[in-house]
Amino acid sequence: MRGLTGKNVLVTGGASGIGQATASRFLEEGCTVCVLDHSAEARERVGVELPALSAVIDADVSNLEQVQKAVGEAIECMGSLDVLVNNAGISIRHDFLDTTEAELDQVIGVNLKGVFLIAQAAARHMVEKGSGVILNTASTAGTTGYPHYADYSASKGGVIALTMTMALELAPDVRVNAISPGYVLTPMQRAEYSDAMLDAVNRKIPLGRHARPEEIAALFAFLASDDAGFATGQVYVMDGAETTGGLCSQWVHE
Q: Which of 146, 149, 152, 193 is catalytic?
């Protein structure tokens, strides 16, 4: 991708799944990369698997003090911050009526408040230096109803609205976009779905499979590059056409 070499990139939720694949892709593009992740186990593993990382930072993205410290650490480590991939997220699969207030607070805290806080801290630095790119991980669940994911869907719908508002306020200095993945075969997905459930999902996706994390990472790289220099305020769906055909897509592979 044009214009990525030498860029300084921070990836939140960067120690597994889409985040790790994205960190790896930016390293391949010649970027300096820091990752932020709250899982000690994942941080230790990604440091081994991606030894070229400049730093692996611990922070709870829902905690303002930790966010400010973490973003400051990333900027100090790399010298500046050119690209933020706001990817940290969690999911708790429950029926709407069974979701507790604590679970709601946790999901909204990481998936929406966390995106807001990290983006705000990064944007202040980017606006001051006059340039930057912020990319948020949304979800097709933010625009389409999915049973058992009321809190998750609400959080991702908020990310989509936040992305559009940020793009308007931060232009022309900072470009802001979001990616809405559909089903991606990540550790989080594997933890929530049995093999039978995964097969059922694949049958309703026109391309017949889950996305690979590396495919989402490739879109992040493009949107951060100079090739996407006129792209801002948009939400890019990458779901194998699952939501394109509505209910019709469920019959494609039956």
A: 152
